[in-house]
Amino acid sequence: MNTKDTLRWGILGTAEIAQKNWKAIRNSGNATVVAVASRTLDRSRQFIAARQAEAPQPVAPRAMGCYEELLAATDVDAVYIPLPTGLRKEWVLRAAAAGKHVICEKPCAPSVAELEEMIDACNRNKVQFMDGVMFMHSERLNRIREVLEDGTSVGRMKRMAFGFSFYAPEDFYTGNIRAHSGLEPHGCLGDLGWYCIRFALWAMNGKLPTQVTGNLISTAARKDSPNPVPTEFSAELMFDGGISAGFYCSFLVELQQWVNISGTKGYLHVPDFVLPYFGSQLGFETNNASYQVTGCDFNMEPNRRQFWVPEYSNSHARSPESNLFRNFSNQVLGGKRNSAWPELALKTQRVMNACYDSARSNHAYPLC
Questions:
Q1: What residues contact residue 347 under an 8 Å CB cut-off, 6+ apart?
Q2: Is there a domain that residue 175 lies in?
Q3: CA-to-CA distance for 95 and 287, rounded, in angstroms?
Q4: Which of 30, 101, 103, 168: disulfide with 128, CB 3.0–4.6 Å?
Q5: Contacts with 94 (C-beta within 8 Å, 6 or more apart), sequence order
Q6: Strand order in the sheet with 31-37
Q7: Is it true that the peptide bond before 230 is cis, omega within 30 degrees of 0?
Q8: 1 within some domain
Q9: Whole-number mean pLDDT of the chain?
Q10: Is this structure's pTM higher than 0.85?
Q11: What is the DSSP string of 4-59?
Q12: What is the rounded CA–CA span in Å between residue 30 and residue 1?
């Protein structure tokens, strides 16, 4: 295979999300998986066999029984790291030292300081770093930006609100890594809140909030967890210009993933901003409601407009996850690094950790 136009990937771990991104790499058109490593050789073999049967890479990847072996491979250009948050720093540092470009799952690290160290290592070793937020690579975002800035659909933005949750079954709290503080210390805030924070930062063109206030509503833990983790969390973010954002994330409320952006002339609603509803079009709507009083008649009209972008929700060459790996691979194959990607990951980490610090201290946390 001509590696000048194909980025060769290794997958470091066999987490569930790696199944989706295996297919995304295959569908990208400019990347291929050449190796998969797990803590045991059998697990790597089983993962590869199952994925090859469903979505085969052009050449079956090699199975490896330890992460070090993959990082030493000379035919691996980049690594995708879906390991638990508590383990990522070590392997991002090792990957960077081995000259491998890195896509790291989110949340990227337990702390801001650790993510700064990870990004510094990537910069020092001249490798690209990016977190794995798929919706950032959706073509729908470009259309949303156009509508937000058209001056009439929303007007001057004032308020953003987010909800992202799923109802976790009982066995979630006995075996899932997201209920273990050593593996996923931020619980639902890291797993779900990261996306809400990221969308807010995107809408604000990367501008950080001046202050955040977090509210730790409930916690839980596996029996082997050192400490409880958030299972319900809410926060308020205050930005310059009188713009505010609020989000609620939870493992205790059934699946929802919506955002509302409200302004002086209307609001924009996205019902599925993280994982798009299944189909070949991604949508959102605006509402410019009108209210008229005529004698005894008080009439409210919604004045809704729907917008559709031709883009597949998942498992397609033109879906957000495939765009993510295509964009990353193009960047690396082009011989240049994109500093905006790690900078935005670090900003997201700063806001998330500030929200958690605020909740635990019961005080608002200034960021600027």
A1: 201, 206, 208
A2: yes
A3: 47
A4: 101
A5: 67, 68, 71
A6: 62-64, 31-37, 7-12, 78-81, 101-104, 129-131
A7: no
A8: no
A9: 96
A10: yes
A11: TS-EEEEEE---HHHHHHHHHHHHHSSEEEEEEE-SSHHHHHHHHHHHHHHS--SS
A12: 11
- Same domain flag for 153 and 298: yes
Find the mean pLDDT for residues 318-325.
Answer: 98
- The interaxial angle of helices 194-203 and 340-361, nearest 10 deg, is 120
d(CA 93, CA 115): 10
Q: Is 246 helix (H, G, I), strand (E, B) or coil?
A: strand
Asked if 82 and 105 sit in the same domain, the reply is: yes
Q: Are residues 149 and 291 in the same domain?
A: yes
Token digits for 66? 């330890």
Interval 292-305: pLDDT, tens: 999 999 999 999 99
Containing structural domain, residue 331? 7-135+320-338
Residue-wise burial string across 298-334, b where 16 or more C-beta atoms lie within 10 A, e elsewhere: eeeeeeeeebebebbbbeeeebbbbbbbbbbbbbbbe
Closest C-alpha to 69, from 32, 25, 103, 35? 35
| Banded model confidence at residue 20, pLDDT cuts 50, 70, 90 | very high
| 299 within some domain | yes
What's the mean pLDDT in 327-336? Answer: 97
Identify residue 37 by its one-letter amino acid code: A
Q: Tell me what the mean pLDDT of segment 242-258 comes to.
A: 98
In angstroms, the CA 197 to CA 214 distance is 12
Alpha-carbon gap, residue 271 to 275, rounded angstroms: 10
How far, in Å, are 119, 131, 182, 203, 345 from residue 342 at the CA level? 7, 7, 24, 17, 5
* Position 62 pLDDT exceeds 80: yes
